User: What shape does this take?
Amino acid sequence: MPRFIIERNFADKLEFTKEGVDRVDLINDEEGVKWIFSFLSADKRKTYCLYEAENADAIRNAARRANIPADVIIEVDQITPAMFA
Assistant: This one.
């Protein structure tokens, strides 16, 4: 399954709630998108999220439905230090 990094810019500081995360998970399931993990900037205005999805359009659709930004979506491949040992 292809992996993508999504950069999200929030005008207001981001606040997580269990209900909000559950809603995003439900929408992601319906769109065939899997949220793996995210990094949150210190000011809580930007996230960098790793997702699995068939394509970037599935991520855009899920983000639109969840009313969250998906400002930049980049398909990525994984590289680890073990690959060079």
Observations:
- The chain has two helices and four strands.
- The domain at 3-79 is CATH 3.30.70.3090 (Alpha-Beta Plaits).
- The longest helix spans residues 18-31.
